[in-house]
Amino acid sequence: MSIDFATVEEAIARPGLRMVVVGNIPSPWSEAAKGILHVKGISWTAVRLSYDSPALKDWAGQRSGPVAIYESEAPRAGWAEILLLAERLAPQPALLPADAADRALVFGLAHEILGEQGLAWSRRLQLVEAGLQGAGGFQSKVAAYIGKKYGYSPQAGAAATRRVVELLGMLAARLKAQRAAGSDYYVGQGLTAVDIYSATALALLRPLPQEVCAMDPVTRAAFEFREPATDAALDEVLLAHRDLMYRRHLALPLSL
Length: 256
Description:
Blueprint: H1 8-13, E1 17-21, H2 28-40, E2 45-48, H3 54-60, E3 67-70, H4 79-89, H5 100-114, H6 119-132, H7 140-149, H8 154-180, H9 193-201, H10 217-223, H11 228-233, H12 236-248
Parallel strand pairs: 1-2
Antiparallel strand pairs: 1-3
Helix pairs in contact: 2-4, 2-9, 5-9, 6-7, 6-8, 8-12, 9-12
């Protein structure tokens, strides 16, 4: 997925949809937002997150990504806000089901993957905890910064592995039940946002190969941090689903 990145100043001056994304790492939140726009064929201007740009902070309202800014509308940073904007800009192909119960299920599963205390959030705290303990994961300075930004505490760090294991087990069971019902997807018989979120979230546990996901070796080593209970819970069905979503719907190599 080749993306041309604009400078902050260029993006601010352009019309249409602009989105600030985390650069040089496969952040699940940024890659999911990119994937949604790719599936829907929405044109947009990309700008990499810059932590030392006052102009970007003033424009986007924060130093994080993704942040989607459409025309003169307020910035949108939450995964659900970005999804709903994309659904509005390009209703087809829909990534939210028309059926109300299925729609609620998609939102619930999506929160458990990308929301606060969800899989990606908890895995990030797991990597912070390991880094602060000198046991792998993020380097200590990175761990301290990320931990402060995303609510790390010794209690949250201690609970992170249990939460990751629970969520991996729940998601694997869901996919296996869907397979038994004849579907390759989390909800119904076709692609929804949940499938994209699940595929991108696994970057924090097993990044895609270097040839399609070029990462700094130190960052890759952090993301690939192994923990026995987590390894046992990371069922092959989750990785097979990720690979299928990239083959059928998403684009490789990643443009980070």
